[in-house]
Amino acid sequence: MKVRMFDLRVKDKFLHKNLLSNFKKILKHGVFFFGPELHEFEKKMSKYLGVKYALGVASGSSALYIALKSLGIRKGDEVITTPFSWIITSNAIVECGATPVFCDIKDDYNINPDLIESKITKKTKAILPMHWGGHICDMKSILKIAKKYNLFVVEDSAQSFGAEFDGKKTGSFSDVAAFSMNPMKPLNGFGEGGLIVTNKKKLYEKAKILRYAGTTSDPKKIITNNCLEVSLNHKMDTVNASMLLASLKNFKKKRKKLSLIKRYYEKNLSKKILLQKFHKKEKPGLYAFPIQVKSRDRIKKFLESKNIETKIWNSPLICDSPAYKKYKKDKLPIARKVLSKTLNIPFHENMTNDQIKFVVDQLNLSIKKFN
Question: What is the DSSP letter of 89?
């Protein structure tokens, strides 16, 4: 039996039918950029996430970069963030000309709010928390600090679409937030895609200009070079917007299946395995299922021998990547410890009951052998 880490094949008949139907509509109307599906998608995202403004863009990378640029983050500024994330979290900061300041995490993979204040200087302009694996950061504490020091907060919500705390969804806590919607993400497109959300009209208008080469979008194509600020092309095409609309219809069903897998894992995995912790009033984004084990590499090799695919994410830490060696960093003991023990196991809606049970059985067996 082979168990994939991700299985991106479209097996749901309802989803398959809607994807084809939506694509045929575009072939018929022929508006491949800024088509009606994009406007519908943005409107539905705004309503679902409980924010005033939503803007579809080309990728999660574009979303985070534009979010920072819309705040005026530039050379000489510092942005406090996590070292435990996909490299784009910090790349977006650097591309704005600013400096990432790395703050250690807790063992739940998210930035530790108790350590943020010690990182604040006169150059600090923003805090950029990342909801790792779909688990919501301690936004109450982060927002309190931001208010005290008059800092912006930018949520990296790449992995947390659908997550909420006390009825409030990720993306709605901060000044501006960025989502990724590629095929692996909770709300998945079928190509690269991203979303910027905010409750502030000025940020929305600025982001809208930055999305399309710094120009004021003119549907009539009369004035095409009215460039207000130098930028590149970050727009989402109509095709991916239509695919995301189909995924949105299927999203509740997808979350239900992932919730069942999560509960089965939590109930049946060995108690020697450390699982990700969540807040009491939290509904996580269900992007990943990380485990922490002592003999991580040996367990990974054992599972691979049983055709169970696993992944070690975020290695090395961003601050240890060659491009970031020039930036100041602390020892970051928790991030290093967590990285050395963490293994991500298969977690997707296409898993069969036999596959789920097989993963648990083989993982528990490996714990007996190596832990």
Answer: H
